[in-house]
Design brief:
The protein is of the alpha/beta class and 214 residues long. The chain has 11 helices and 7 strands. It has a 5-stranded mixed sheet with strand order 4-5-1-6-7. A two-stranded parallel ribbon has the order 2-3. It is globular, with a radius of gyration of 18 Å. The two termini are 26 Å apart.
């Protein structure tokens, strides 16, 4: 199987390593100087207030006036990510890094090493470290493994068998798909809000509407 380990809002968590109290408050990554004024990753309390990653800064502050803006720290994030990858490799995982905060690996070898799939996933989570609130997913297909990791609870390893992958994915939100924010909005305007609804559309119509993304 393919496994994915995910640290949600990794860039924000890295920036908050020296300010952990803000994890429990509405906070978001501030836009980089000279870039479009869109907020980056957000904490759980900020999301609960209605703030979403990619929201315009003015709209985010209007939605949540107490929102704390956190300056991005790419150097700290890079160093922290390299440390995490090294710990996983030291534990025997042949990792394939995705974007910072996401890593994949084939489970075949580590299942033998740790006595099964679930113990191997738990070992991977332990290697990352509980302070990062990592979660893991495993499935026959890469996207299903990633989706499982994204919906798992912190510290949880969620395994999706191939025969239930379709039903597992169907009710999940479109935001799990790697699309531009405008694409999500376009699909939502058409009443398409879940992966299952999108999968149920004719392929030619989706391709015509969304191009290569579709």
């Amino acid at each position: 199987m393919i496994a994915a380990v995910v640290i949600p809002a990794f860039d924000l968590r890295a920036a908050l390593r020296l300010r952990p109290r803000l994890q429990a408050q509405p906070a978001a990554l501030a836009p980089l100087p000279g870039t479009e004024p869109l907020v980056g990753s957000v904490t759980g309390p900020a999301e609960a207030k209605g703030v979403r990653p990619g929201m315009r800064l003015g709209e985010a502050l209007a939605t949540c006036p107490e929102l704390e803006l956190v300056e991005q720290d790419p150097a700290t994030a890079e160093q922290a990510w390299e440390e995490i990858l090294r710990r996983l490799e030291d534990a025997g995982f042949a990792v394939e890094p995705g974007d910072p905060g996401t890593v994949f690996f084939d489970t075949k070898g580590v299942e033998r090493l740790y006595g099964g799939l679930e113990p191997a996933l738990k070992r991977a989570l332990a290697a990352v470290g509980s302070a990062w609130d990592p979660r893991a997913g495993a499935a026959e297909r890469r996207f299903a493994a990633l989706a499982a990791a994204n919906v798992a609870r912190p510290g949880q390893a969620l395994i999706v068998s191939d025969d239930r992958a379709r039903s597992f994915l169907a009710p999940l939100p479109l935001t799990l798909l790697p699309l531009e924010r405008t694409r999500y909005e376009e699909l939502e305007e058409l009443g398409v809000r879940t992966i299952g609804q999108l999968a149920g559309l004719p392929g030619s119509a989706v391709a015509e509407r969304l191009g290569p993304d579709g």
